[in-house]
Design goal:
- By secondary structure, the protein is α/β, with parallel strands linked by helices.
- It has a domain of 75 residues: Rossmann fold, CATH 3.40.50.
- 41% of the residues lie in helices and 20% in strands.
- Helix 2 packs parallel to helix 3.
- The longest helix is centred in the first third of the chain and has 13 residues.
Amino acid sequence: MPPLTILYAEDNTVLMLNVTEMLEEEGWRVDACLDGTTALEKIESRRDYDLLLLDNNLPGVSGLELVYRARSLAHRQLTPIIVLSATEVGREARRVGASLFLKKTENIHEIVEHIVKLAGQQS
């Protein structure tokens, strides 16, 4: 699998740094941001992202709103999107177009497994 480019939006700095490091150890490029407003600008840009990894509880624009906005753009309609949240918003995440909802757990390494599965489905 070629290296993936992932947009990762997470407002918890420690978690964002840990997950970014873990994803980069897989050989993937990570474009990380700490708020929904910056994430929306990146989503609306023509940057080539293989996957969007979005926390739901972001300042500015929520992860669910980011999914909805991404799916309204022609160049993001097929991009896999994972929504992360400490609260159960899985049904709503899928309704607005998320490929997968993951409840935040202690085992952040599960994220890698899910990214590999989603990226493999896109190949």
